[in-house]
Design goal:
The complex is a heterodimer of chains A (406) and B (133).
Chain A (H helix, E strand, L loop, with lengths): L7 H11 L2 H14 L6 H23 L3 H44 L3 H18 L2 H11 L4 H9 L4 H6 L9 H14 L2 H13 L7 H29 L15 H42 L13 H19 L4 H11 L4 H12 L2 H4 L6 H27 L6
Chain B lengths: L1 H8 L6 H26 L5 H24 L4 H26 L4 H27 L2
Helix pairs in contact in B: 2-3, 2-4, 2-5, 3-4, 4-5
Classes of the chains: A mainly alpha (406), B mainly alpha (133).
C-alpha cells in the first residue's frame, strides 16, 4: 500500500505525456473529429512509455545513471550532442507552450492580458519550484492534476455506447491522412523523450535503489496508466458532446466545456483547476528535463535535492529555460502551434533516446540480475520498431495535413 | 522549398474547396458558441470564462471574415464568398453580445437562438457549395 502511494513521480511524468496543453486539445480534437475511432492509439502509447520509463527507472535505480548519462556513455559525444540539441529545442518549445497554457487558464479565471499572466504564471512556477522539495513538487502537480478525472466522470455521465467504445480500440485502417496524423501524433505525444529524462532523473533525485524496483514498476504502470485513462476520458467525452454538436475544438478554452456541459459551474471550475495543475506540472517536467540533460551531458552537479548553491549551473539552467520560454511567447506564437510542432519535431530525438536505454537495460555487465527479462526485451524491440515508424511518418503527415488543419 | 510552396499555395484565387473549408470553420465556431450561450442561458457557467471564450470565438469569426474578404475570387463563387463573409460578420457580432453580457441569462438565450439561425444559413450555404454550380 505504501508503495502504491509513492507513484507521484510516475503521475507527474505521465501528465507531461498525456494531458499537457497540446494533449488536452489534441485528444479533444481526435474525439470531436473521429468519435471513438482513435482510442486504440492511446494504449499503444501507454504501453510504450511505461515499458521505456520502467527501463530507465530501473537503470537509474541500479546504476545511478539517468537517461542522458546513458545516452552519452553509449552513443558517444557527437551523437549525444545531436540528441542534446534536438531535445533542448523541443524542451524549449514545450516550456513556452506550457507557460502559454498556464496564462490562458489564468485568463479564463480572471480575464487580464495574456502576457501579464504568462509572466505571473512563470514567476509562480519558479517560486513553487524554488521553495518546494522535489517530492513536494511531484505530489503537488501529480496529485492535483488528478482533478482532471472530472473528464472521465463526464464521459461516463453521458452514457457511452460501450459497443462503439470497444470498437474504437481496434484500428480501422482508414485511408484519411488526417486520421493517421492524429494517430501518429497521439502515439508520439505519449512517447515524448523529456518524460523519461525527467522520470529517470527523478528516480536519482529520490535516491531509488534496487530495493525500490517495485516502486519503479508501480510508477510506470499506474502513473502512465492513469495518464492514458485521462486521455481516453477526454476523447470519449469529446466524441459524445462535441462530435454530435459539430464543434471542432481549436482552443484550450474549449476543453473545459466538456465538464461544464454535464456538471455546470462546478465542472467548469474543476476542469480549469485540473488543467492548471496538469499544464503547470508539464512546464516543470520540461524545464527540469532540459536542465537535467545539459547538466548530465556536461558533467555538472545537478539535482533539486541539492540546494541551489550546491548545483548552481543546474539551477541557472532551469531558470534560463523559463526565461527563454517567456521570450518565445513574446513573439506572439500561439502556444498550441508550439506544442504541435514540438511533438512532431521530438520524433527526431525518439530513437536516439530510447535505443541507448534499451541497450543498457539489457546489458548484464551493467545491470547484473536486474537486466531486461524476456517480456521487457520483446516489448522493448517491438516498440523500437513502432518508434521508427512514428519517426518516419510524423513529418510527412504534418505537411500533408497542414498540421492537422486539413 | 517548403516556405516557397506555402507562399505559392496562398497566391491563386479562392477555390470552391477552400471556401467550403472556410464556411465549415464558421459552422464549428457557431456550434461552440451555442454551447457557451446555453451555459449562460441556464446560469451554469462563470461570467469570466464566458467573456474570454466568447472573445476568442468572435475573433475566430472576424479572422475568417477578413481571410475570405481578402481572397481573390473567380466570378462563379464570388456571390457565395460574399454570403460567407456576411455570415462571419453576423457571427462575430452575435458572439460579441456574450462578451458584453456574460452573466445575463436573457442574452444567453437570445444569442443561442440567433446562433441557431446563423447556423441554419451556414448549412444552406454549405449545401449550395457542395452541390456545385
Amino acid at each position: 500500500m505504501k508503495a502504491i502511494l509513492r507513484v507521484a513521480l510516475g503521475l507527474i511524468a505521465a501528465i507531461g505525456g498525456f494531458v499537457d496543453i497540446g494533449d488536452l486539445v489534441f485528444n479533444t480534437q481526435a474525439g470531436a473529429l473521429f468519435g471513438y475511432e482513435l482510442l486504440w492509439a492511446v494504449p499503444i502509447g501507454v504501453v510504450g512509455i511505461a515499458v521505456y520509463a520502467e527501463m530507465s527507472g530501473r537503470v537509474a535505480a541500479v546504476t545511478k545513471r539517468p537517461v542522458f548519462d546513458v545516452i552519452r556513455m553509449r552513443m558517444g559525444l557527437s551523437t549525444g550532442l545531436i540528441v542534446l540539441v534536438a531535445s533542448l529545442f523541443v524542451n524549449l518549445l514545450t516550456v513556452a507552450a506550457e507557460i502559454g497554457g498556464v496564462a490562458i487558464l489564468l485568463q479564463l479565471f480572471f480575464d487580464a492580458p495574456f502576457m501579464l499572466f504568462a509572466l505571473v504564471g512563470a514567476l509562480g512556477l519558479i517560486v513553487i519550484i524554488w521553495i518546494t522539495p522535489f517530492e513536494g513538487i511531484e505530489r503537488l502537480f501529480g496529485y492535483l492534476g488528478l482533478i482532471l478525472f472530472v473528464f472521465v466522470a463526464a464521459a461516463l455521465h453521458e452514457h457511452p455506447d460501450w459497443h462503439a467504445v470497444g470498437g474504437g480500440f481496434v484500428p480501422n485502417g482508414k485511408s484519411s491522412t488526417l486520421y493517421w496524423y492524429f494517430a501518429v501524433g497521439l502515439i508520439a505525444a505519449a512517447l515524448m523523450p523529456y518524460e523519461v529524462y525527467f522520470y529517470s532523473s527523478g528516480a536519482v533525485e529520490e535516491g531509488w535503489k534496487p530495493s525500490d524496483l517495485l516502486v519503479n514498476r508501480l510508477n510506470a504502470v499506474i502513473g502512465y496508466g492513469i495518464g492514458g485513462l485521462l486521455s481516453i476520458g477526454l476523447m470519449m467525452a469529446s466524441a459524445q458532446l462535441f462530435e454530435p454538436a459539430g464543434v471542432e475544438p481549436d482552443h484550450l478554452g474549449t476543453v473545459p466545456l466538456l465538464a461544464q456541459l454535464p456538471y455546470g459551474e462546478t465542472g467548469l471550475v474543476l476542469a480549469l483547476l485540473g488543467m492548471l495543475f496538469a499544464i503547470g506540472g508539464a512546464a516543470v517536467d520540461a524545464s527540469f528535463a532540459a536542465a537535467y540533460s545539459i547538466a548530465q551531458f556536461a558533467g555538472w552537479e545537478w539535482g533539486k535535492y541539492r540546494r541551489a548553491s550546491g548545483a548552481p549551473r543546474f539551477t541557472l539552467a532551469w531558470l534560463l529555460f523559463f526565461a527563454l520560454g517567456l521570450a518565445v511567447l513574446m513573439t506572439g506564437i500561439d502556444p498550441l502551434d508550439l506544442t504541435e510542432y514540438s511533438v512532431v519535431l521530438s520524433v527526431v530525438a525518439l530513437p536516439l533516446t530510447y535505443v541507448p536505454v534499451l541497450l543498457i537495460a539489457r546489458d548484464r555487465t551493467f545491470m547484473g540480475e536486474y537486466a531486461n527479462g524476456p517480456v521487457a526485451r520483446v516489448l522493448g524491440w517491438v516498440y523500437l520498431v513502432v518508434l521508427c515508424v512514428v519517426a518516419v511518418a510524423a513529418i510527412p503527415l504534418l505537411l500533408a495535413t497542414n498540421a492537422g488543419g486539413g | 522549398m517548403v516556405v516557397a510552396a506555402i507562399a505559392l499555395a496562398g497566391c491563386g484565387p479562392l477555390s470552391r474547396a477552400e471556401l467550403t473549408r472556410g464556411v465549415e470553420t464558421l459552422s464549428a465556431v457557431a456550434a461552440e458558441a451555442q454551447l457557451v450561450a446555453r451555459g449562460v442561458a441556464s446560469d451554469r457557467t462563470r461570467a469570466t470564462y464566458t467573456r474570454v471564450q466568447a472573445r476568442t470565438l468572435a475573433e475566430d469569426a472576424a479572422h475568417e471574415a477578413e481571410k475570405l474578404a481578402d481572397a481573390s475570387v473567380d466570378g462563379e463563387i464570388a456571390r457565395q464568398r460574399d454570403q460567407a463573409v456576411a455570415l462571419a460578420m453576423r457571427l462575430d457580432d452575435t458572439i460579441g453580445e456574450l462578451e458584453t453580457f456574460p452573466g445575463s441569462e436573457r442574452t444567453g438565450s437570445k444569442v443561442d437562438d440567433d446562433l441557431g439561425a446563423i447556423a441554419d444559413d451556414i448549412d444552406k450555404l454549405t449545401q449550395r457549395l457542395t452541390q456545385g454550380p
